[in-house]
Protein: 3-hydroxyacyl-CoA dehydrogenase
Amino acid sequence: MRIAVVGTGVIGASWTTLFLRYGHEVVATDPAPGAEARLRAAVTADQTRLTFTADLAEAVADAGFVQENGPERPDLKDEVFAALDAAAPPGTVLASSSSGLLPSRIQRACAAHPERVLVGHPFNPPHLIPLVEVVPGERTGEAAVEAAMRFYRGLGRRPIRLRRELPGHVANRLQAALWREAYSLVDRGAASVADIDTAIAHGPGLRWALLGPFLNQHLSGGAGGIAHVLEHLGPPMEEWWADLGAPRLTPELTDKITQGVAEELAGTAEAGLVAERDALLALLLDAKNRTDHL
Structure:
């Protein structure tokens, strides 16, 4: 398939790597000076099927799927999607990688075919992390949703379909809930930044990498499963909910968090940390793919 990648920053380059690895032809476009050189330096796949053009209309003219990755600015999204709507073949899905804008808002710029517009939000980096959140807008047709789900599955991704538009979709909202309490614990002086990272990375985060919150709870309940957990731990959990913090990102709290991260990273080469993270992610994903249930 011929895929158009619109916007070739970090997310666009990662999508491009994934599309090429799965044998697709990619036409990338980005108006920024030097965009093609940066893209080719970032892509870690065979680039013989990769072409670049600064002309957006040319990039999408024959595309079977469009993945847009522009800045999270409504005015720019309006401009880009109006152009995409005019130039892409009528049956081609227009998917935005937006992590915050709602698809119904994005559709407003598409007078001709709003029914093929949706959000296909990846997790960074898309060529490694399998999750894609497919979010239809008020005017998105079922055919476009089904086509997007098939497309992402064909790339070895694990797409989920949202039944309701929400700011931040699903996964970012779940992350935000954790960050909110993590920031609150720092703000209250209950734990250091490093200790909170340790608590997650060497505790529940290990299980969360394998199963989600509901199945993890279910398996912790023994023979009674999640029903037993909710019966016996539900009341104290409600008490914990009532005690969760509601921090504000004041300059003082921002300084605490920034300083805490600096102290945690002291003497650590960040490039090496990223390389180790990505290498272990690849090993973990490979291991999960070889299981029957994970």
Q: What stands out?
A: The domain at 171-289 is CATH 1.10.1040.10 (N-(1-d-carboxylethyl)-l-norvaline Dehydrogenase; domain 2). The beta strands are 2-6, 25-29, 50-52, 65-68, 93-96, 117-122, 131-136, 158-161. The two ends are 29 Å apart (CA to CA).
